[in-house]
Amino acid sequence: MSAAPVLVACAHGTRNPTGRRLIAELALAARARRPELVTTAAFVDVQPPTVVDVVADLAAESRPAVVVPLLLSGGYHVHVDIAQAVAGSPHAVAARPLGPDPRLAAVLLDRLTEAGADPRDPLTAVVVAAAGSSDPRSVADVEETADLLQRSWAGPVTTGYGASAQPPVPDAVAAARRAGAERVVVAAYLLAPGHFHDKLAAAGADVVTAPLLPDERIAAVLLDRYDAAVG
């Protein structure tokens, strides 16, 4: 058995079968990069096993664990759900979420160009669309990601949210048009397809990008979060 802590890859959870597959493949990609590492999956919502149960089971075996949130910003699930799950175990710690990170902004840029958007066009506006959280730390993380993307984008880059934060994505799209954009593209700041990505089609944008996965850079970010927590 590996002496290194178990990597608990903790995702939100989704009923979307493609989303489930892509999240599973992300954990497998991390394992492929680090074959000696023991990895397991956990979720904060929608699907089992819960992160509480996974951490408790590992603690019962006295196995150290690092819970890496497969989440793009630090909201309630990171600061409450995952934090509480590790608080009861002397052998478990939580890493920080995947985002913000320049590599995720680079993946967003690739998704935008794949969707036909031109980063050199000052009249093409981007709305970075995140799931949303009432936690201001989560909003700050998304805004930092938008700032990272703005460095590679000639037109304006703003943010919009699916729930619990302002502005909603349709409002952000409308605001970009009022500000003079000839084309508005929604950059889906989501790991995988699911309920929120489905809703983006009705936000009024000219184009909606694919989610971030699959991409090898995200597995590299995942392992970096694990290493930082172990270190």
| Share of helix, binned | 40-55%
SS field, number of helical segments: 8
Runs in which pLDDT lies below 50 for 5 or more consecutive residues are none
Q: What spatial form do the alpha-carbon principal axes imply?
A: elongated
Roughly how many Å is the radius of gyration? 18 Å
| Assembly context of the chains | single chain
| Cα distance spanning the termini | 20 Å
Largest sheet: 4 strands, parallel
Strand-residue proportion: 15-25%
Structural class: alpha/beta
Mean pLDDT rating: 95
Count the strands? 8
Order of helices and strands: EHEHEHEHEHEHEHEH
Q: Order of strands across the biggest sheet?
A: 2-1-3-4
Report on the architecture of this protein:
The protein is α/β, with parallel strands linked by helices and 231 residues long. 42% of the residues lie in helices and 17% in strands. The protein has 8 helices and 8 strands, in the order βαβαβαβαβαβαβαβα. The protein has helices at residues 17-33, 51-60, 76-87, 102-114, 136-150, 169-178, 195-200, 216-230, and strands at 6-11, 39-43, 65-69, 92-94, 124-130, 157-161, 183-188, 207-208. The protein has a 4-stranded parallel sheet, sandwiched between helices. α7 links the parallel β7 and β8. α1 (17-33) crosses α8, α2 packs parallel to α3 (76-87) and α4 packs across α5 (136-150). The longest helix is centred in the first third of the chain and has 17 residues, at 17-33. The protein is elongated and about 60 Å long. The two termini are 20 Å apart.
